[in-house]
Task: structure prediction
Amino acid sequence: MLIEGARKSKDGKQFETGVSVLGDADLDYEGPKELEGLMERVDEFSWTTVVGNQRSSIMRTRPRFEDWSVQFEIEVATDLVTDDMLDNALRHSSRIGICDGRAIGFGKFTYKID
Result:
């Protein structure tokens, strides 16, 4: 996501080399955390749409979370990536979005740097 956002400012190569995400990021949202609980509320936590698959159309279901947040830590090589470059990458990424359904507005977010 950060590399794609950085590419909008022509900084993609620096980000590929100079930015590393440390560890996994947990998705934080209100609702059940286990698969069984999510399946009980499938209408609330899923999105189904028709997609093309070669010459046929099939239904595809993906997870959906209305209000969510995620925190992650990155390591930055400051000789390659500046604070302004990082801010630009996040700004562009927030407009592009993350995961499926971006073309119809899903995956957009706001961000805060601590």
